[in-house]
Design a protein that fits this description.
single chain; mainly beta; Immunoglobulin-like; 3 domains; 4-stranded antiparallel β-sheet
């Protein structure tokens, strides 16, 4: 078997290697030679100042109970020793135990549902503390407020189908109290009368919404009206205040355009679109009921477009002719 050889022994003689090791060898207490000319200070040899650590063998044990000695379960017990806070819940026997505290007086706080908090200072000892809570606090109760009823009769032109629309009562005051009025909604029946039961007393604003906007907040088709609900029956009349637009769409030769899409939007900084409609064979189409005011009208049939504006007022129906530009 061939012997393994160390190649670098051919280059570095053993005597030179021994001299190199001896140059860097140091005796105890000496520093190795600096390779960059810097002088290294020897390490400190003492004596060193001892640092004492406080013992963390403190134990806190307590029984949380009421004045009759009955244990209180799930009470939050927090203990402050120095700047360290620990906390535990009392078990079903009312007991709580914590270990690993530093020595010192304990600031103890106990919080339990339905009882006044308890706060006290205990000495540093391992005896079980008795934390006695006061009698249960009385359960808060609220006097039941008397409710009112409201009957709303809607007045509208004979051509208006109110059935299926929604009447919305919006309280004037914000609902920040437990007895504050809350919004109420009801669907209009066949007799055009809306009945609200068990309303909180307060001031409400009546708002009538079309069937396609049930559950929403716009558009409002009724005239502004406020009612005052008390503990009795309130009968009020709500006036319908909306109109429709009939649009006739013509081409450049004055012929009716069937299938043209018509979209109406409110004017202003934040325009709102109403449901669109298309024209029939005669080039005419009618919108849904819309609130009174100014509306922009946009019409498109293929690549041809047109537009205009219309003002809805007291009249039940407004008519408009739009000629397409292509």
């Amino acid at each position: 078997m061939a012997r393994s050889r160390i190649p670098w022994l051919k280059v570095v003689p053993l005597a030179a290697l021994a001299a190199l090791v001896g140059a860097y060898a140091t005796r105890p207490g000496e520093l190795p030679p600096s390779t960059n000319g810097a002088t290294l200070a020897p390490p400190a040899t003492g004596p060193f100042e001892s640092v004492g650590l406080s013992a963390r063998d403190g134990i806190f044990a307590a029984l949380v109970c009421d004045e009759a000695g009955q244990p209180v379960e799930s009470a939050v017990v927090s203990v402050l020793v120095g700047d360290e806070v620990r906390g535990e819940l009392s078990d079903e026997t009312g007991r709580v135990a914590m270990r690993g505290f530093p020595r010192g007086a304990r600031q103890v706080k106990v919080v339990a549902m339905g009882r006044d908090p308890l706060q006290l200072e205990l000495a540093d000892d391992a005896a079980e503390a008795r934390l006695v809570l006061g009698s249960p606090l009385p359960t808060p109760s609220f006097a039941g407020a008397q409710r009112g009823r409201c009957l709303v009769k809607l007045l509208a032109p004979p051509t208006v189908e109110l059935r299926g629309m929604e009447l919305w009562l919006e309280p004037e005051a914000a609902a920040h109290r437990i007895d504050a009025p809350l919004p109420a909604r009801a669907t209009v029946g066949a007799d055009d009368v809306v009945r609200f039961e068990r309303l909180w007393p307060g001031t409400y604003e009546l708002r009538l919404l079309p069937e396609w906007a049930v559950g929403g907040s716009w558009p409002v088709l009724s005239a502004p009206k406020k009612i005052e609900v008390s503990t009795g029956v309130v009968e009020v009349v709500c006036e319908f205040a909306a109109a429709r637009v009939e649009v006739a769409v013509l081409d450049q030769r004055g012929r009716p355009v069937a299938g043209a899409l018509v979209v109406l939007r409110t004017t202003g900084d934040a325009p709102r679109p109403a449901p669109g409609f298309t024209t029939g064979a005669d080039g005419k189409g009618s919108s849904a009921w819309l609130p009174r005011g100014k509306w922009s009208v946009a019409v498109q049939a293929g690549a041809a477009k047109g537009g205009s504006e219309v003002e809805l007022g007291e009249s039940e129906l407004a008519t408009l002719v739009v000629t397409l530009d292509g």
